[in-house]
Fold Bifunctional oligoribonuclease/PAP phosphatase NrnA.
Amino acid sequence: MISKRDAKLISKKISEYDNIVIVKHQLPDWDAQGSAMGLAHLIEENWINKNIYIPGARLNDDQNFAKNFDQNTLSKALVITVDTGNSSRLDFDQWNQGAEIIKIDHHIPVENYGNYNIVDVEAVAAAQVIGMWAIMMKLKISKEAAENIYTGISTDSGRFLFDRTSPETMEVAKTLLMAGADLNKINKFLYVGSLKQRQWTNYAFGKMQLTKSGIAHIILEEKDYKKFDLSYDEVKSALSTMAGLNEIKIWFAVIEWEGIYKVSLRSRDYDVNSVAINYNGGGHKLASGAKLKDLNEVKKLIANLEKLLKTKKGIENEK
């Protein structure tokens, strides 16, 4: 949980500025977008005469706070970043041209790029940090804010199944539901897919390779997903096909996207972040991202993960 001091600092800085620019990471997931949109709605509901902007891509057709702004507006703005551990991943190149910057995150710190860096590594989602801040400051939570924040928590917690789901997570979720978040609507939106999506995940799972030690991976090049006409988030859904299988101890997907080989690493028991940081990445112990120069690095990555398995230092052994 963030400290009361940090919670008050966020509120104090919001009160000091007329212009607020909220920035998320490139190729946003629902924790990034839910945190950004939820925070914007909270500010709109609890402060008067604030100009709130959220630049960058959206996962759906919600264009709230997507209005344009000029350099003069930015220079006088408070910039708040959400769910982004390092500045190179921010989806707004001019993020550092604001008057002050607050970083709100839940990833293992790798770069303190803000004037104020408020990070709760125990939170299962950045949206949980936003939600707990609202609770601590006794803010009004609108239905729109509640649904965005709940969506972020639900996705980043794997529907409340992941390791860092905690009593605090549930407290925030309870508060959001009491504020009007429509659980049935959110679950249908997130977890009822299309036939095309199921065909894609079936195809992707068919490309899985598994080592004798239990390391699984799927390599997805542009030629694989182009015919399916998918967004990045939809392509990445192939990662989940390797989860929940006894034979798989560590799994990852390599996705070629816009000329970059993006890696998503997962495990139930092993600190994959310790490997990801050596491949221009990072995140959490059991869920991290990375980047490869080319596909020739896949063998090296697997070798590093084999070494991780041989250490027998799973998360449970650290407790």
The domain at 195-318 is CATH 3.10.310.30 (Diaminopimelate Epimerase; Chain A, domain 1). Residues 30-46 form the longest helix (17 residues). The first strand starts at residue 19 and ends at 23.
